Each structure stands twice: as C-alpha cells, then as structure tokens.
Amino acid sequence: MTSKSTIEEPQDNLRDIFSTQIVTNYLIYDLIFSAASPGSILRFSRTCHAAHLATRDYFARTFKINKHLSRFFDDPLAFRSLQAKTSTLISGSSALQFFDRTHYEESDLDLYVSAKHHREVGRWMLAQGYKFTPNSIQDPDFEISAGEDNMNVDVFGYVLQDDRMKGVAAVFTFHKQSPTIPGKRLQVQVIVANTCPMEVILWFHSTVVINVISWDRAYSLYPRATFEHRKSVLLRQRHHNFDDVIQKYTNRGFGFVFTLDHDDLKSDPAFASSPRWIGDGHSWVIDLPTEGVTLPQPLSPLSKSLTRDPCYLSTWRLARAARPTEHVVMDLTVVFSDELLYYNYVLWDDKDEQIQRVLRDAAFEWFDKGGRPENPSASSIG
C-alpha cells in the first residue's frame, strides 16, 4: 500500500520546481507569456506570490511605451509631455499593437487632438523633422492649412460629412525618413476633432481599434473581445467601403461580428450594453511610467493641474440600431461642454445630468474659493 508521504512527495517536487526554477526565471516565463493571452497571464498571476511578481516583471518589460514611441520620435518623453500639455491621444492600429504585443510594419501613428491644440501639435511635428504632406486641396504651408477657414477637409480632399470620419474637423499628414531603417518613410497623422478626441475614437468602424494611449495610461475598451476572443463588432451598417477594413484586420487575425442580438448585449461581458466608462471593470488599463514627463500645468491662474487625461471621464454604451438595419452602434449622444470647462466630454445620454452636475459643482466650488478671474477666457478648470 502506497503511503501518503510517497504520494505527496512528487507533488512537492513539482511545486518546488515551479516556484524556484520556472516562475523565477524570466527566460522561461517570457516564453510562456509571449504565447499567452492577457487573460491567461492575469489568471496565472493569481496562482501564487511568485507568479504575481513574475507577471509584474513581464508587464513592466513588455509594455514599454517609450520604446513603442521611439519608432516615430527621437525623444518619446518630449512627445508624452506634449500629450500631457495638449491632451493628445494615440489610437488606431498603433494603440492596438501596443496592447497586442505585436508590430505591423506598414502601420502609421494616428494622433487625436482637440481643435484648440492642433496648431501646437503640428508645429511640434515640424520641429521634430517631419514634413507636412498636404492633400489635394490643402495648402503646402501648414500654418495656412491649419487656419480655421481651411478646416473640415480630410486627407482625400472632400468635406467630412459622413459617418466614416464623424466628428473630424481635419486631418494633417506628416512624413519623415526613418533614422534607423533605410528607405522607410514614417507617417504620422494628426486628426483634429470638432469637439473632443474621444468622440472620434468611439465612432471608429469597429471595436478592435477602440484602444487609447494618453500621456499617463493606456486603455483598451473591449479587451476580452479583442485579445481573448480575437473578435471585433462592426459599428456601422456593412457596405462595400468597409471591405478593405474588414480584410485588413482579418489578415491580422481578427474575426468580425456584424450584429449582436439583445440577449448577447445583455449577457456577453465582451460586448455588454450596460453603461460604460473608460476605466471601468470591462476595460484593460495599463499605468504608464511618467518619470521624465512634464506633467500638465494649470489651465488658468485659478485652476489646479489635471492629474489625469480628460478622456478618463468618457461614458458610452453599445446599443442596437433602429430597424431595419439593427446593427450595433455606439450610443453617445451628448458631447458635454460648459463655459467653466476647458475641454469637452463624451457622455452617455442617461448619465448626462449626473456627470454635468458633478463637473459644474467642482467648478463652482473652486471658483467660490478662489474667486472668478476677470478674464473670461481664463475661467476654464479642466
């Protein structure tokens, strides 16, 4: 008869090997994690203290935002300081690559900026050695093209009036020869939002690209669907203009869902129809190191510095479009703005009054303590 001690001994040996040779050796767990989904890594981190430390180490060495940006900028910290100053967001394929731990050789960098900062961001690009590449009807001089009279024109040279570029005032394209890859031409596009960058991002063609990188955090809004199930919900009624988009992301390993029924929206945590906000439990949030980044300065003499990017206050939800199409759409009917606030905010309709009250109460409380400035333009708080 086998004794209890002889049964437990092999298990103890395996446990010792795991804790002393596998989970403590980054060469081994890097190989394991590189083939694992984010959810699998998270579940692994919960098995023991050593696994938790290994996961933290892997994440710190893998999700390196400065290295990610070094492809486009010689000084990533200077760019991130610009982000903090102007609330510029990175989205599209670059943000997807950051979360997915992959690299698309042909991809560019898309920056989303409010109209009040587009000149500053464009001038910064020029100072970094990028050249402005006008479209067919833009003036070759960036300062002229960036003037208010020349806005509302996209890269293809027609007025932005359809849902494909909803919320966009203009697109400015910049190019530069790669300093490290001979013959490689880098492209950065500055997409100017009519109201706020998050409105443009939430109106993207599908959920796979709804990922955002601010100066201090990276947010994936549909991580379970994107990185666990490798699926994306199309957020427009399908037509021929989306065939190229669908094919591109299919080639990158993502499948498309063209509609969801009401039960799926209610029960599937990957595509829940409940009200969402950008840092909620359905999101994947990566805190980015800010050492060396110049933090945001007060927006007025009487305001405090912002401690997070304004995108953090965005709210929305998925919903079914009205018949006969019944495709899935983003429900974000309100872009809140107020004379006391410097930035605009995307809000889900039913949360509008509650969040507006919070923002206004904070504004009035601040001005009651400090007094309203004489210059109305300096009254914004955030």
Ranges with pLDDT <50 over ≥5 residues?
154-163, 366-381
Q: Class by helix and strand content?
A: alpha+beta
Range of strand content: 15-25%
Biggest sheet features = 5 strands, mixed
User: Residue-averaged pLDDT, rounded?
Assistant: 82
Write the H/E string, N to C.
HHHHHHEHEHEHEEHEEHEHEHEEEEEEH
Count every beta strand, where a strand is a DSSP E run of 2 or more residues: 15
Biggest sheet, spatial arrangement of strands: 1-2-5-4-3
What is the percent of helical residues? 25-40%
Q: Number of DSSP helices?
A: 14
The coarse silhouette is: globular
Give the end-to-end Cα distance, rounded to a whole number of Å: 74 Å
Q: What's the Cα radius of gyration?
A: 23 Å
